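Progress report, Aim 2. The chain analyzed during this reporting quarter is listed below.
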Amino acid sequence: MLITVIKHSAFLGSKVDFVVKDNFYVRSQPINIHYVGENIRDFFWGKVIGPMSAYHIFAYKLGKNTSTSDLINHFGGGDGSSLVVAWNLLLDQPYGQGGYLDTEGRTNIFLGLDYSIGVFWYKNGWSIRAYPANAKRERIWYAENQVIILK
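Predicted structure tokens for the chain:
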């Protein structure tokens, strides 16, 4: 899989419930989101994620094309809480400025057991998509993409 650790940071946690549909929708404030995929709306729209404790966040760069199942076998799968972390990272880069998330055309991958979340900067806005683990054709993530892991 040829994975390299490229960043490490801390997520200080959250003290309130996180309502997915109240945050991940197309708009220009406070985060310039251009696209929210249908799978996000279908699978996560009604979810409320409770307060979270602090975590360490690691970003890994893929050295070769890798399937979702290989990533889950290597790192384990997360739960919906990665959406809270994604949101907080997006708050630091609302208009694609430099920061923790890659903005150079590569996907920031947040793993889940049922879905993987892909967050990427494209044409002056963020695109947020979910890829089901049980799809007929497994998702292959390209080399150079960044995998975000909570530990």
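The radius of gyration is 14 Å. Helices lie at 20-23, 38-44, 68-75, 81-91. These observations will guide the mutagenesis work planned for the next reporting period.
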